[in-house]
Amino acid sequence: METHTSSFSSLRAYLRALSHTPTRFTRRAISVSTPYEEMSRVRSRSGSDMRKTLRWYDLLGFGIGGMVGAGVFVTTGRATRLLAGPAVVLSYAIAGLCSLLSAFCYTEFAVDMPVAGGAFSYLRVTFGEFAAFFTGANLIMDYVMSNAAVARGFTAYFGTAIGVSSSNWRITVPHLPNGFNQIDIVAVAVILLVTFVICYSTRESSTVNMILTALHLLFIVFIIVIGFTRGSWKNFTEPSNSENAYGFFPYGASGVFNGAAMVYISYIGYDAVSTLAEEVRNPVKDIPIGVSGSVIIVTVLYCLMAASMSKLLPYDMIDTEAPFSAAFSGKSEGSRWVSQVIGVGASFGILTSLLVAMMGQARYMCVIGRSSVLPHWFARVHPNTNTPVNASTFLGLFTAALALFTDLDVLLNLVSIGTLFVFYMVANAVIYRRYVAIGTTKPWPTLSFLCSFSFTSIMFTLIWKFLPNGRAKAGLLSACAVIAFAILQLFHSMVPQARKPEFWGVPFMPWIPSVSIFLNVFLLGSLDGPSYVRFGFFSAVAVIVYVFYSVHASYDAEEDDFIIGQKNCEIHMESEESEEDQSFKV
């Protein structure tokens, strides 16, 4: 039997493999997997299975805990003061609707294919290995950077809660450059503690998350009640400075949508819940309730929080950096204790969002290791804890190293361009998978629709962002909207669906995923330049890793699977021949 030599067995073998890179890239980049392979052969590479211990209420807890973190305490003030005014309540409602549409797309995949890979696995069965690796690698880097920033933010919020400046807890190293000279031991300790919890057990991680989330929700309800009881309804329409715009919409309708783009980052976190699908007892029932239900609950909470803050202060008096704490600390001396209570609540929120995000990033890394585009060491599931200990430990230490000395701005790193890009890709993937069946239907009509609709969405976004207000801008935006609607209606009427979901599917296909595509493109257009620079850098790193390592490791795994299949076939044939010989002798 012929054996395959690994591309990494020696330097000569690796150089030989590099010489075949174009051929292997062409073969592996667009190779797609199947749900059956993802749930059987690919999952078996982890050794032990992840234990199915989660129910719908666990997913609700993870979803709420993952979303209600530091984001809402930062973005609400900026969106209210600078963009939407009291209408920030509607901004949160619009952003919540966008999140719900994306959640529907995730849910269809997670119910049909309950594996730990989340978006990586969904893209691998639709657009192929390279697209999955490209988006997955960017998402993991965004997770790591955001988690490091959030952990450092915990030091600041907890210091505020107990009345101690965070600078007293950080060690300044004068010989290091600015931005890298503040050593944060507390942030490292928090990350290592969370890493231990998620390595120990998913069931216990859920219990810890439930407790922290319940405490955090109590503080949020406290904020809402205090705001509504101490505030005044006139603050919804009257600014403190008579020179500023009056009314519920001081910045107009455009301000509401710009505010929605800013506060959308407060909803990022539910995607990590989809990575827990492999550990859910009843995916068909539990996943739709857990994912969609958590988005709906968080939307209601965010709208009430924004309303309570707008009732407490006029929009032009709201602090842009710490709106809730500043609102109470400035009311009176007797209200300063409320500010400290809010600091405690924010600390709990940071811990829950950190816990869920670190669980999600570990499972992404585990399944990427299963697919052989990263070393199999990351794919191992510990037989005693039934958790991806290797991936969790590696990413935990990497995150802790960043949080130790890198001064990352919390808001900047919560603006996750990688996550929004993955939302966009998953919405495209759910349409592609519904309308294209490999071997039976042609993919070009669907691909043409997706490309043309995305292009129209990009044009709408660029016009919205760069053209000055006026009739020309309104006319061009209207033209883009009409063209997008026409493209969508034409595709809907002419291209039939190739498959129907067996258990749960996105309703009103292809309208809901298409709206999700448009909204994610629009929100991507609202991000700043540095976000795209970071995305470009991480993308370049991902491509380099794929070309120089992943494509060859994946090729080796394909060849090994082929040889194993041949051996199994020969063993089966020899067994049948032996049985025939025995029966002949008898």
Question: What's the helix and strand layout?
Answer:
Blueprint: H1 11-19, H2 21-29, H3 35-39, H4 41-44, H5 56-67, H6 71-84, H7 88-112, H8 119-124, H9 129-162, E1 170-172, E2 182-184, H10 185-200, H11 202-230, H12 252-263, H13 271-274, H14 283-312, H15 323-329, H16 336-370, H17 389-405, H18 410-414, H19 417-435, H20 444-466, H21 471-494, H22 511-524, H23 529-585
Helix pairs in contact: 2-23, 5-11, 5-14, 5-16, 6-12, 7-12, 7-14, 7-19, 7-22, 9-10, 9-16, 9-17, 9-19, 9-23, 10-11, 10-16, 10-17, 11-14, 11-16, 15-16, 16-17, 19-22, 20-21, 20-22
Overview of the molecule:
The structure is a single chain. The chain has 586 residues and is an all-alpha fold. Helix 7 packs across helix 12 (252-263) and helix 7 packs across helix 22 (511-524). Strands 1-2 form a two-stranded antiparallel ribbon. It has helices at residues 11-19, 21-29, 35-39, 41-44, 56-67, 71-84, 88-112, 119-124, 129-162, 185-200, 202-230, 252-263, 271-274, 283-312, 323-329, 336-370, 389-405, 410-414, 417-435, 444-466, 471-494, 511-524, 529-585, and strands spanning 170-172, 182-184. It is a multi-pass membrane protein. The chain crosses the membrane at residues 56-75, 87-109, 121-141, 153-171, 183-201, 208-228, 248-267, 287-307, 337-360, 387-405, 411-432, 444-466, 472-491, 503-525, 531-549. This is Cationic amino acid transporter C-terminal domain-containing protein.
